Amino acid sequence: MDLHEYQGKELFQRVGLRVPGGRIAHTPEDAERAAAELGGGRVVVKAQVLTGGRGKAGGVKVADGPQAARQEAAAILGMDIRGYMVHQVLVEEATPIARELYAAVVLDRGGKQTLAMLSAMGGMEVEKIALMDPRAMACVGVDPLFGWSDFHARRLAFDAGLGELAQPLGDVFARLYRIFTESEATLCEVNPLVVAEDGGLLVLDAKVSVDNNSLFRHPDIAAMRDVHSADPHEQMAFDRSLTYVKLDGEVGVLGNGAGLVMSTLDVVANAGGRPANFLDVGGGAKAEEIVAALEVITADPKVRSILFNIFGGITRCDEVARGVLAAVGQMGIALPIVVRLDGTNEHEGRAMLAAAGVPNIYVATTMPEAAHRAVDLAAATGA
Amino acid sequence: MVDSSTRVLVQGLTGREGSFHAARNRAYGTEVVAGVTPGKGGQAVDGVPVFDSVAAAVDATGANTSLVFVPAPAAADSISEAIDAGIALIITITEGIPVHDMLRLFHLLARAGTTMIGPNCPGVISPGKANVGIIPPQVFRPGNVGLVSRSGTLTYQIAYELTQRGLGQSTAVGIGGDPIVGLPFLDVLARFEADPETQAVVLVGEIGGDEEERAAAYVKAQMTKPLVAYIAGFTAPPGKQMGHAGAIISGASGTAQAKKAALEAAGIPVAIDPTRVAELVAEALAR
Asked: Looking at the predicted structure, is the pLDDT value of residue B159 above 90?
């Protein structure tokens, strides 16, 4: 789960990292009040959206005083940044900057370690730093059983050519590593980390991702989930405990098992179609589970046909066929549904579907055959 | 990896999943010798004795393999207990274990010299010999194709396609769909390379991480047996977790296209769909 900048800064403050004074605002009036509370001087108004590139999109503006903050907030709130609507802005004291650095602690899944990173080239995207000069990014791996030690930070500072800042950087990294492990994050990025005019180090932007699987241990962080910025279909699926990802096409896809469903999306694309979604119904064969899944899929108005791809393992295909028939009967879906059953009791399952004689249910045997059928039917329904 | 010498203890035997699958593993001929549920020592599930600790179960039954069904919040502790008790092979079915737990466990396992398959995996089957986990054995047949995969149902689908073509399997290993797993692809490939019963290998990967790329480098440098690969997730958008915790494209890394390119550069054919996998294996074995 990705956190907003202001939420990341809240976590950073808990471990004593220095961040500029700021307030969150949902309306232009809020923003004006916030700027006044921050002393009435120069502030920065920053869109809070879970995507990058907001600066280029005009989502970050400097404002001289509360009046100007109100005007800038009015322009930014409601803005669409890369498909994300801006619902809130962070109003923050403007900071005189002497120098911008890049600092991060990330989970290195390939290396099975934590990676701490530092660069003297802050303020630009990490990929760009790597492109301009791979040596400009100093990295040090941390063994999780060993933990953080000051030498890690010293190595980073000297490798990055920032030896004169080794002391304050050591302090920042110790705190960053602490919040990374305590909040079970997969990414804690500070870009830029700025050297303020007083020589202190200040967190100007914060990008934090936390591990979804650990949220049961962190109810405070779980509560930071932004339901307003989620896609409405994804939110509907989340409320029903379904694993669903919204895509952009016209063939609705559901199946059992994440790998099989991912593979089904690819096979639909190979057949010349575009999948509308990813939906894993798990081992479920019961009518109510299938109803819940079909409700989410059919709520997407772009869907023109549905491809149901099941491999019967422990769940038998005849049980699945019974569930599909009950669900479709109950919901009265008019869209064409291609059902492909393979595995345990496949013949019984297919025979049951054929015998039921539901006109919009089509039975298929192989994945490519099912995908072609669903793509053709989507084209026919759309025309 | 699993055979007639495998003596399984089930951590979480008294739960619904644990008892159901342990009974299925036994029906397949697997030696399930003990269960562990703290506080339920002295009980029995379908005649299998339950112990309060892994150490007590190992002492009493000589168990050498642990099958873990313990729910995610307590799973890391249960796995640590199995490592401490000297279990040689741990197979963890549990889904949803926090990645920071796995990060520590990965290093604990390495230091103890313990092998772990999973977490978030379907287990291991050697058709005709033993089945440890939740794999439906009816779609597998004994044979000489090794199968290693990050996904459960996709493994069953591909095994079924192989079986229908008359291509049996030596062993199928589901390594798990999490970002960090105990036994990555290349360790399983090394075991297949050394296994006299395996003549060809199928690798089933998906988006996220770089284990397929690491496997490709290993195959190019050290593997002599033919390998066929399949990768799921060409249509997956970046930044979205596709069901499995580990199936996510981060920035520009972990894409299916990059994995396919790395595998093909190592001379490994990559099938366009699961059906084509079986055809490519048949072609490779005919050569």
From this structure: yes
